[in-house]
Write a structure and sequence with these properties.
The complex is a heterodimer.
Chain A: E1 4-9, E2 12-17, H1 22-28, E3 52-55, E4 62-63, E5 74-76, H2 80-94, H3 104-108, H4 115-123, H5 127-134, H6 141-147, H7 151-155, H8 158-161, H9 169-182, E6 198-202, H10 206-217, E7 221-225, H11 234-237, H12 246-257, E8 262-264, H13 275-281, E9 284-287, E10 293-294, E11 307-309, H14 310-320, E12 330-334, H15 338-349, E13 354-358, H16 370-378, E14 382-384, E15 387-394, E16 400-413, E17 419-423, E18 429-432, E19 435-438, E20 442-443, H17 449-455, E21 483-485, H18 488-491, H19 496-514, H20 574-581, H21 596-604, E22 627-629, H22 639-648, E23 653-656, E24 663-666, H23 682-686, E25 692-694, E26 706-711, E27 720-726, E28 729-735, H24 748-752, H25 755-758, E29 767-770, E30 773-776, H26 779-792, E31 798-802, H27 808-821, E32 827-828, E33 857-861, H28 869-881, E34 885-889, E35 900-903, H29 907-920, H30 926-932, E36 933-934, H31 936-944, H32 948-955, H33 960-972, E37 976-981, H34 987-999, E38 1009-1013, H35 1019-1024, E39 1031-1032, E40 1036-1037, H36 1041-1051, H37 1064-1069, E41 1075-1079, H38 1083-1086, H39 1090-1093, ...
Chain B: E1 4-8, H1 11-16, H2 18-29, E2 35-39, E3 51-55, E4 58-62, H3 67-79, E5 88-91, H4 99-103, H5 121-126, H6 131-138, H7 143-153, H8 165-174, E6 181-186, H9 195-202, H10 204-218, E7 222-228, H11 232-247, E8 264-270, H12 279-286, E9 310-314, H13 315-327, H14 329-333, E10 343-350, E11 356-361, H15 366-373, E12 383-388, E13 394-397, H16 407-412, E14 421-426, H17 431-445, H18 451-468, H19 476-489, H20 494-498, H21 501-519, E15 534-536, H22 546-550, E16 556-557, E17 565-566, H23 576-580, E18 586-588
Parallel strand pairs in B: 1-2, 6-7, 6-9, 7-8, 10-14
Antiparallel strand pairs in B: 1-3, 3-4, 4-5, 10-11, 12-13, 12-14, 15-18, 16-17
Helix pairs in contact in B: 2-3, 6-13, 7-8, 7-10, 9-10, 9-11, 10-13, 17-18, 17-21, 18-19, 19-21
Classes of the chains: A alpha/beta, B alpha/beta.
């Protein structure tokens, strides 16, 4: 009824409704206003002040989330002042956001490899997937896993916890990469269709290989010109084989060339290739030439024979394949980096008698990998630290005689922060030696520059003052627009991973260049860092996390190393690697990809250092098994608190303290586990940062995940959910705005009950029991056995059960198999089996969940309010729409959650007493009864014949008054919705509840009537699909000849059974069945009366179809594997008769899905013509009755309560498994 | 007649020792012929304990009455009929030294405070109490009539907002609902303000009558006095008053014989959060929620307590209402200015001779309040500034001392009237430190909801802390100004919207003092210890060694009986030498 008004959004007139909020209207108009605290499900709040706007005539800025529009209002949604306020709000929030977006390992890696992400994949044994993640930025993981200098490990916080024993990041990377390379199906990125563009890359070193790998993927043809006869650059010609075997190198290079990149060997730019030709044939050129020349010592006498630059020595050996003999010689290597290590350890392997490292600082300052130093010592290398050469002494014939050395000591720190070594006067001494290898630096050789500049026509290539190629440091574009440069040739000698990082930068620029776009560096993203607040020290970790020893790298015995075989052997097995993965502290935030704060901070250029000052440091609260609270990340939007209160109704969270000390804490307790928390996880869903997150029991990444929408397969509400997975491994479940859960609600089962999807103990093949043991057989063999068994007995000696977890299509095919195949009507579902017919009435439940907020009063009959999504609907109706909620309950709890509660002992007698009272007083709605119902008089007479006082007594109410008051007020209520759960109510109690609703005339009207909650997702489908001896599909009677003939015609079979000869319950109790088929139910595991029910399944031949080895499956003679909902197409019918389709979101782990097995089985009995879920649904629809009459309800008299539930958990092994997991997790 | 001795037993009196005086008088009474009674504060806090003697000749209020003086007063005055003139602070019989304090005042809100026993409804009624509401019945005034009277009087909200009370009532009246509420906001939270406490302690019935009239005007049937728990005497007397009113039938059903006029009032004790003085936070607190403000609109007049239309007025406003109803709007608007009618109570504190409560007609200058009524600055020091409006207000310099105290004139300066706190500062007050003090208060009292108020005030405070510690940097003033403006324009409630005011006005009027701290590392007021140098005045030093003995870091050298010397490099600016020296031989600079 709201009035339409006009407002002006940034001067543009816009229609809006009176009462709407500015933010709502702006969003609708496509104007993006950032917000952190707003949630349309909740009362507006306005705490973050990120959504502020300017309104003409109003002082200051106004939060758009809570400011209502008014006619003629003029709103500016963004201008410099508004922008500044938003940025300031973010700056202020970030000034107290003591948290890491990404882990230090990733932040430190020059290429930004997502270490935490791939460790999480290794944790799950997904090695190729880990490699695919690494290869998003680093195409050489196997090489990197061996020779990287590992800045990641230096930055690893494990160092703080386990005394400088970082997580074995590279060891794991190597393991994953080797595993992937060793597999035929190793990871191959997708290559886009050819663009027709060509790129020339000069040099097949790591930088060049990187650019080729990524540009080729873009569909550009990349050709590499390499001067030498092998690829790899210094990887091959500088690093000795005992560290990086050539065949491994070649293999990894092949993962690049297999994408289509060509490498032309022995092609040197400026020598046998001219830029003239390159320019003519390629759209862009990338110079990845490396830093090829070694330098000498820079002291007197270094021209002596026997002194070589270390890199050239190594290069020569690789290039010629000739290994010099150093037997009996003394070799001195000057330098402390990895090249020095390579030279000295190579010399050792060449038989040198004495090998000495001369280094001017201490071992701590050595840039070489500590492992290298350690291994070299094992191999017998001598170290002269704090020593520097001053002169080389020659023999008369100019040969090396000795080197003069001087002792050094450390002085003041220099620019690099390292203490500068200064000579100790008078400490000179001579060291006699045969060879000196200088490993102190390299130079770039740009000998092709003239050739390039000669032919370049859009600029000139320039060399900078260090002799390296001059390129824009941000884009790596050189003075020639189409020429880019990357790697050592630009930076001077650096590391492998830096070359890869440079390659990535060049790729980004070249991609833009080739697309004709402006060349801009990759935009930076905001990253919160704990180190921005305080240096991370051991005491922040020791005692808070468990220590765990590092899985060290196995190495070749030191005595066996006089060769060039690889010294490091790699982790021997997956177990070791996965154990090491557990050491990851997961420093990076799980919400990295989804954090709103991060997104807004990036957009608004907010920074962490603008407002420095005190910050709050909280311990992360892991005490709840599913929900983790990290107040360090909290921005106090209170969405968790408000959702828990206004939607869920648990009120488990609150704010404590004031001012800057304010923070979120469990209400009334130290831990969430001590509150009314119902573990629905809605707090996680609504948190805009990572302050509320899932307390995962595995390494969650964070990873980019694929989201697949499906329908929750727990209860009958029918919530839409999103399975978030990485290549089939489910990482989390998030909520979706479905048809039923429009407001994005979900409960604990949907949110946390997903472990089954990753459970490795799944049954994947048909299993046949032979001599008491299960043996894998083929599907065809299984079908044959089943066919023979069915045919071997009389039709009615077969019994079929199908569970309410199954889709409509699957259920339909089960009963078709029973009726059309086995020719029996013995088909039922154990979830209702033997519980009385009364529940059938529940299928006429009429009220919709969305009508709850329009009710004038909600009545909940039972105890389990507020546990699941319908409970949230009720609470939200109460909190936001002021609908009073009244409860009739056998329990004391939850009284404070409702406006009124009536305590009873027995629902059945209570309702009967109410009905008795109303009819005695003549208070029934006679008009409704006359128009819409039948059998009223019979009911009335029978009921009034009962003793009222006896009913009151049996109901257990304190006084008669309570019953009568309830009856009167319920009767008088304009719009009363009655809600109950089949789980809590007996079949006859639910019949009597229907009688009550009919007596008062509340059925079939809007915002009136009954909502029934059922146990399983497709409880309603059971009835609809004919999983019932008496009813065919569409609840058509199975003794109706016209229907039988319709089915026979459709199915192409004859002799379908008509009606029911004997109730299956009677037969089963007398052991009258020979064959039994149980689809998707675990009656043995879920039985509450094992003595009685377990022997039901002791039949000659038992087939069970399920996903896991349930107790029922164990009894089976033949097991068929069942697929999961997410692996299938199909549909469920929720309790409100809404049919929701779902689609396959994940590859099925079993060869044939449940449905295709059923299709195959039906085909065995000559029933063909359907091949997928859509076909089945079409067939179902064609068989449904066409009935347009408005329904007539029927009174049914019941004479006793019949609470005889035989099975719990909806007879579903999945519910049982999650229930058990849930219970144990709180212990 | 039998002489009557009345002791002022307000919180201020009790704090000054009036309870002891009262107890002593009870003992003396056994041997003397007088009646002993109590009253509340008359505003002359600087002379507490006050004891009034009423005899046949008139009334005489004695100041500074301790047990000893009490004895003497009974002996000489009550028994001996000798008025001890030099102790009398107020009488109509002769001029006292305190004439100026009293003469400038016009008492409407405080009309009964100190003049009756607040625990007796009869005394209130004897002083025209409940005649405002009775007039409504007698003259058969409609709700609209009452609202018009209040509108005509021009009275504006005395809690600080200055919103016309009549208009507020009109809005609440226009909201259609069968349930409405009237709330008295007695959550007086400004440091240095105590007028509401004084009214509640001294004249609780006036507040109740104001609420009753308001309830009638808007159609409320429920009333709440939201009073901070730190005011136990006020709560005690309010409860006595409510019970008395109930007994008399002034609360309950069909009250004052007006058919269908039902009203119940109860006292809700607040936990003392400053923010609960904000209307929406107050409502949340009454509802049992955490006291946090909500976005307005909807205003309480439309959706307030339990989402019902609610009107909230401050104590002082309500205590004016019965007077206006009884004496008429015209009479009220005789006082004050055109846009700020009536009187305003101010709490004078700080560096002032006559600290206490004064009620003056609006429009009087600040100078008159401070120098005429307040008696000026003690110890011959120079006036420097006055803080108006408490932590939401601002400090005005001497150049603005002739500003008239009315809503619009004060607002124009950047300060606000607020609830009427006036903190007077002399030359020894450091304005940076003063701004820091008020901001420290608001930062701690922020409810923590809004980003700017929660984190922004904290960051401003940290900068001010640095400045007074001597670690101010270039750009600090600009950051304070910038952040201050951002906080003001991006906060949900009045607390955040005004929290930077003390800092912003201090910078506006005393910028050089900030600059001296930051650039010269000096505190001109010699207040901020880290910025003070302590030096020995050679001429005055006797070489007694006391300073050296007390120096915690042993940085004072000097032999006995010789001039001492402070090693500046080691001095930690603790000031103990200055405090200990008996010869004024330590100089600050």
């Amino acid at each position: 009824m709201s009035k339409e008004i006009t407002i002006y959004l940034n001067d543009k007139p816009v229609k809006a409704k009176d009462g709407e909020f500015i933010l709502e209207v702006a969003n609708r108009e496509g104007i993006k206003i950032p917000t952190l605290c707003n949630d349309p499900r909740l009362e507006p709040y306005s705490s973050c002040f990120v959504c502020v706007v300017e309104i003409e005539g109003m002082r200051g800025h106004q939060p758009s989330c809570s400011t209502k529009v008014a006619d003629g209002m003029k709103i500016i949604t963004d201008n410099p002042a508004v922008h500044k306020s938003r940025k300031t709000a973010l700056d202020l929030l970030l000034s107290n956001h003591y948290a890491d977006c990404a882990a230090p390992c990733k932040n430190t890696c020059p290429a930004g490899v997502d270490v935490q992400g791939y460790i999480s994949l290794i944790d799950k044994g997904m090695y190729s997937e880990a490699v695919s993640l690494i290869k998003e930025v680093n195409p050489l993981p196997a090489i990197c896993g061996r020779v990287c200098v590992r800045p990641c490990e230096a930055a690893c916080r494990r160092n703080l916890l386990d005394e400088d024993h970082a997580v074995g990041i590279d060891y794991m990377k190597r393991f994953a990469a080797d595993y992937d390379l060793a597999h035929e199906n190793h990871y191959r990125p997708e290559v886009k269709p050819s663009t027709g563009k060509k790129v020339a890359v000069i040099g097949a070193g790591p930088g060049g290989l990187t650019t080729a790998y990524y540009l080729q993927q873009e569909g550009h043809q990349v050709d590499i010109y390499e001067g030498k006869n092998h690829a790899g650059g210094w990887l091959r010609y500088g690093i000795p084989e005992y560290r990086l075997p050539n065949d491994l190198l070649d293999k990894e290079v092949e993962t690049i060339t297999e994408l289509g990149t060509n490498i032309f060997y022995e092609k040197k730019l400026g020598e046998n290739v001219s830029y003239k030709d390159i320019k003519a044939n390629y759209d862009a050129t990338i110079l990845t030439i490396g830093s090829q020349k070694g330098t000498l010592l820079g002291v007197e006498g270094e021209d002596a024979e026997g002194i070589y630059p270390g890199v050239e020595f190594l290069n020569e050996m690789e290039a010629t394949g000739k290994k010099p003999d150093f037997s009996g010689k003394t070799v001195v290597v000057v330098g402390g980096g990895n090249t020095a290590m390579d030279c000295i350890r190579t010399s050792q392997r060449l038989g040198a008698e004495r090998t000495v490292i001369v280094y001017r600082r201490t071992e701590n300052e050595m840039p070489a990998n500590p492992i290298e130093i350690h291994e070299s010592k094992l191999e017998g290398v001598e170290y002269m630290i704090l020593t520097n050469p001053t002169k080389v002494n020659q023999t008369d014939d100019g040969k090396l005689k000795s080197v003069s050395l001087i002792k050094m000591e450390l002085g003041e720190p220099d620019d690099s922060g390292r203490r500068r070594p200064v000579p100790v006067e008078g400490s000179e001494f001579d060291l006699e030696c045969d060879y000196i290898l200088a490993a102190i630096g390299q130079k770039t050789d740009v000998n092709f520059i003239d050739d390039i500049n000669k032919y370049a026509d859009d600029g000139q290539l320039v060399v900078n003052r260090w002799g390296d190629i001059d390129a824009d440091p941000k884009t790596l574009q050189t003075g020639i627009k189409s020429v880019f440069a990357a790697g050592d040739g630009v930076t001077g000698a650096a590391t492998l991973i830096e070359a890869i990082a440079q390659g990535n930068v060049a790729v980004h620029s070249v991609k833009q260049f080739l697309n004709g776009e402006e060349i801009k560096p990759k935009p930076g993203e905001f990253l919160s860092k704990r180190d921005n607040f305080v240096k991370q020290e051991s005491d922040k970790y020791v005692g808070k996390y468990a220590k765990q020893e590092r899985q060290e790298m196995p190495v070749m015995d030191a005595n066996a190393r006089m060769n060039f075989k690889e010294v490091e052997l790699g982790y021997s097995d997956e177990q070791t690697c996965q154990t090491e993965a557990q050491r990851c502290l997961e420093c990076g935030c799980v919400e990295y990809f989804d954090c709103d704060l991060k997104a807004h901070a990036t957009e608004y250029g907010a920074e962490q250092g603008v407002y420095e000052g005190e910050f709050k440091e909280y311990n992360v609260d892991f005490s709840h098994p599913y929900i983790e609270i990290d107040n360090n990340k909290c921005i106090l939007c209170s969405r968790c608190i408000r959702t828990c209160d206004e939607v869920v109704g648990a009120s488990a969270l609150g704010l404590v303290k004031r001012g800057f000390d304010t923070h979120v804490a469990p209400a009334m307790g130290d831990s969430l586990t001590e509150t009314n928390c119902i573990s629905c996880g809605m707090c996680i869903e609504v948190c805009p940062t990572g302050a509320m997150s899932e307390n995962f029991n595995f390494k969650p990444g964070p990873l980019q995940l694929e989201k697949e929408t499906t329908i929750c397969n727990y209860c009958s509400t029918g919530c839409e959910i999103e399975i978030n997975h990485r290549k089939g491994y489910t990482m989390k479940v998030t909520v979706s705005d479905g048809l039923i859960n429009k407001d994005g609600l979900m409960c604990k089962s949907g949110k946390f009950g997903y472990a089954y999807l990753n459970n490795p103990n799944r049954i994947l093949k048909p299993l046949h029991k032979v001599n008491g043991k299960f043996e894998e057989i083929s599907f065809d063999e299984a079908y044959k056995i089943i066919e023979d068994k069915i045919k071997a007995v009389k039709p009615n000696e077969n019994m079929f059960f199908a569970g309410a977890r199954m889709s409509n299509e699957e259920l339909y095919m089960v009963q078709k198999l029973a009726r059309g195949g086995a020719k029996t009507n013995n088909v039922s579902s154990l979830s209702y089996f033997g519980r009385g017919a009364g529940y059938h009435t529940n299928n006429i439940a009429n009220a919709k969940f969305e009508e709850l907020k329009d009710a004038s009063r909600i009545y909940y009959i039972g105890n389990e309010l507020n546990k699941n999504v319908p409970g949230f609907f009720i609470n939200n109706a109460k909190k936001r729409y002021n609908v009073p909620v009244e409860m009739v309950t056998t329990s004391e709890v939850l009284k404070d959650k409702v406006n009124k509660a009536t305590r009873v002992d027995n629902y059945y007698y209570f309702v009967k007493a109410v009905n008795h009272y109303l009819l005695t007083k003549g208070e029934q709605n006679q008009m409704f009864i006359n128009d819409r119902t039948n059998a009223f008089d019979d009911y009335k007479n029978a009921l009034l014949a009962e003793n009222y006082d006896e009913l009151i007594k049996k109901s257990g109410v304190a006084t008669k008054d309570l019953v009568e008051k309830f009856a009167r007020t319920y009767n008088d209520e304009m719009n009363a919705i009655l809600v109950f759960h089949e789980n809590e109510i007996s079949a006859n109690a639910s019949v009597e509840l229907y009688n009550l609703v009919m007596i008062t005339g509340k059925l079939g009207k809007t915002a009136n009537g009954i909502i029934v909650l059922k146990e399983k997702n497709n409880s309603h489908g059971i009835a609809d699909m004919g999983i019932c001896p008496k009813h065919e599909v569409g609840m058509q009677k199975s003794d109706d000849a016209s229907i039988i003939s319709k089915l026979e015609a459709k199915w192409g079979v004859s002799g379908l059974p008509v009606g029911v000869e004997q109730s299956p319950l009677d037969v089963i109790e007398n052991g009258g069945f020979k064959n039994m088929f149980v689809f998707g139910e675990d009656p043995v595991g879920c039985s509450t009366k094992k003595d009685k029910t377990d022997k039901w399944f002791d039949v000659d031949f038992l087939v069970v179809q399920d996903s896991f080895m349930t107790e029922t499956a164990e009894k089976a003679d033949l097991i068929l594997p069942a697929s999961f909902t997410i692996e299938n197409d199909g549909s469920f019918t929720n309790t409100q008769k809404i049919i929701q389709s779902f689609y396959q979101g994940m590859e099925s782990k079993i060869e044939k899905t449940t449905l295709s097995q059923l299709i195959d089985l039906n085909a065995k009995f000559g029933m063909n013509g359907v091949s997928d879920a859509q076909d089945v649904m079409n067939e179902i629809i064609s068989l449904l009755p066409v009935d347009t009459d408005s329904p007539t309800y029927s009174f049914e008299y019941t004479n006793e309560d019949n609470q005889n539930k035989l099975f719990m958990a909806g007879v579903d092994s999945l519910i049982k498994m999650f229930g058990k997991e849930f219970m144990t997790s709180f212990k | 007649m039998k002489p009557k001795v009345i002791v002022g037993l307000g919180s201020c009196g009790i704090a000054a020792g009036a309870k002891k005086t009262y107890d002593e008088l009870e003992i003396i009474k056994k041997d003397a012929n007088f009646d002993l009674d109590q009253t509340s504060c008359i505003g002359m806090c600087y002379k507490e304990p006050l004891v009034e003697v009423v005899d046949e000749t008139g009334s005489y209020i004695y100041g500074d009455v301790d047990e000893k003086r009490a004895h003497e007063i009974i002996e000489r005055h009550v028994k001996g009929n000798e008025v001890i003139k030099e102790w009398v602070v107020k009488t109509e019989k002769f001029e006292t030294s305190e004439k100026s304090f009293l003469d400038g005042q016009v008492k409407i809100a405080l009309r009964n405070c100190g003049f009756m026993n607040p625990e007796r409804i009869e005394e209130y009624e004897a002083r025209d109490g409940y005649k405002g509401i009775k007039k409504i019945k007698e003259e058969n005034l409609s709700q609209e009539d009452v609202i018009k009277e209040i509108l005509d009087s021009g009275i504006r909200g005395r809690g600080g907002g200055g919103f016309p009370t009549g208009l507020k009532w009109k809005f609440a009246n226009q909201s259609v609902n069968d349930e409405k509420y009237i709330i008295c906001n007695a959550d007086e939270g400004d440091p240095g303000a105590f007028m509401d406490r004084s009214v509640l302690e001294g004249d609780p019935h006036a507040v109740l009558e104001g609420m009753i009239i308001g309830a009638y005007a808007i159609g409320a049937n429920g009333g709440v006095v939201y009073c901070r728990a730190e005011y136990p005497l006020a709560i005690h007397r309010l409860n006595i008053a409510i019970n008395q009113a109930k007994e008399k039938g002034y609360l309950g059903k069909d009250i004052f014989g007006i058919k269908g006029f039902d009203l119940d009032i109860y006292v809700k004790e607040g936990a003392g959060a400053f923010v609960c003085g904000e209307e929406t936070a107050l409502i949340a607190s009454v509802e049992g929620e955490r006291g946090m403000p909500r976005k307005r609109p909807p205003f309480p007049a439309v959706s307030g307590l339990w989402k019902k239309p609610t009107n909230i007025n401050n104590v002082e406003t309500l205590s004016n209402i019965p007077w206006i109803m009884y004496n008429g709007a015209k009479e009220f608007s005789k006082y004050g200015t055109e846009k700020s009618s009536g009187t305003k109570v101010f709490a004078l504190t700080g560096k002032i001779n006559h600290g206490g409560l004064v009620e003056v007609p609006m429009g009087i200058t600040i100078r008159d309040v401070i120098f005429k009524l307040g008696g000026g600055i003690p110890d011959g020091k120079k006036f420097k500034a006055v803080q108006l409006g408490g932590p939401s207000g601002g400090s005005l310099p001497e150049s603005l001392i002739d500003t008239p105290v009315d809503y619009d004139s004060v607002n124009a300066t950047g300060a606000i009237m607020g609830s009427g706190g006036m903190v007077v500062m002399d030359e020894s007050t450091c304005m940076v430190d003063m701004a820091r003090f008020f901001l420290d208060f608001t930062a701690k009292e922020s409810c923590g909801k809004c980003t700017f108020c929660r984190v922004g005030t904290k960051r401003m405070l940290e900068i001010l802390n640095r400045i007074v510690e001597g670690d101010g940097k270039e750009g600090d003033i600009e950051t304070l100004l910038e952040l201050g403006e951002e906080i003001k324009s991006n906060s949900l409630c009045g607390l955040g919207q005004t929290a930077p005011n003390p800092v912003l006005t201090a910078i506006k009027y005393f910028r050089s003092e900030f600059e001296a701290h930051i650039y010269d590392k000096k505190c001109p007021a010699l207040n901020c210890r880290p910025l003070i140098t302590y030096e020995v005045v050679a001429d005055a030093c006797t070489g007694c060694t006391l300073c050296a003995i007390n120096c915690p870091v042993d940085c004072i050298d000097g032999a006995k009986k010789e001039v001492h010397f402070i090693q500046q490099d080691d001095c930690i600016h603790c000031g103990s030498c200055f405090t200990k020296c008996n010869f004024n031989a330590i100089k600050l600079s």
